[in-house]
């Protein structure tokens, strides 16, 4: 009987541990993305490229589209062009292609690692 209670207590403890560590991914993460985000810094993976401030660059996310705006170079081909996107809690796919890893998302600040650019951008949400 004592072994039964020990086994039951161990099973209960392990199940509590797994349930308390499980990440809640009920779709609310995507709604937190919606809004206008200003780029406050860019850091490239290549150590030879200097970090940039990207003053004026920002993105706008709706429930279905992602749009890039470039303050210092509005002539880029994707400036102001909306793209369809999906977000699974840690990756953003644009038009079905995984191009962004969300490496940090805390409150009104998030860091994106752009796979094609080989660098990271930090964004701050506009109030």
Task: Note the total helix count.
Answer: 2
Label the structural class. Answer: alpha+beta
Largest sheet: 8 strands, antiparallel, barrel
CA-atom Rg in angstroms = 20 Å
pLDDT < 50 stretches: 1-28
Mean pLDDT: 76
Q: Could you explain how this protein is built, in words?
A:
With 127 residues, this protein is α+β, with helices and mostly antiparallel strands. It has a single domain, classed as Beta Barrel (Lipocalin), CATH 2.40.128. Helix content is 20%, strand content 41%. It has 2 helices and 8 strands. It has helices spanning 2-21, 28-33; strands at 35-44, 58-61, 65-69, 82-87, 91-94, 97-106, 109-114, 119-125. An 8-stranded antiparallel beta barrel has the order 1-2-3-4-5-6-7-8. The protein is globular, with a radius of gyration of 20 Å.
In short:
The protein has 127 residues and is of the alpha+beta class. The chain is built from 2 helices and 8 strands; from the N terminus they run ααββββββββ.
């Amino acid at each position: 009987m004592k072994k039964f209670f020990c086994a039951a207590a161990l099973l209960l403890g392990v199940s509590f541990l797994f349930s308390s560590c499980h990440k809640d991914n009920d779709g609310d993460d995507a709604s937190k993305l919606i809004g206008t985000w200003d780029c406050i810094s860019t850091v490239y993976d290549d150590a030879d490229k200097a970090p940039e401030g990207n003053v004026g660059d920002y993105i706008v996310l709706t429930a279905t589209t992602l749009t890039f705006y470039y303050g210092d170079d509005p002539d880029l081909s994707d400036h102001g062009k909306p793209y369809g996107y999906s977000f699974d809690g840690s990756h953003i796919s644009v038009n079905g292609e995984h191009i962004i890893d969300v490496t940090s998302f805390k409150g009104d600040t998030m860091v994106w690692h752009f796979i094609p650019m080989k660098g990271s951008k930090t964004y701050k949400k506009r109030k």
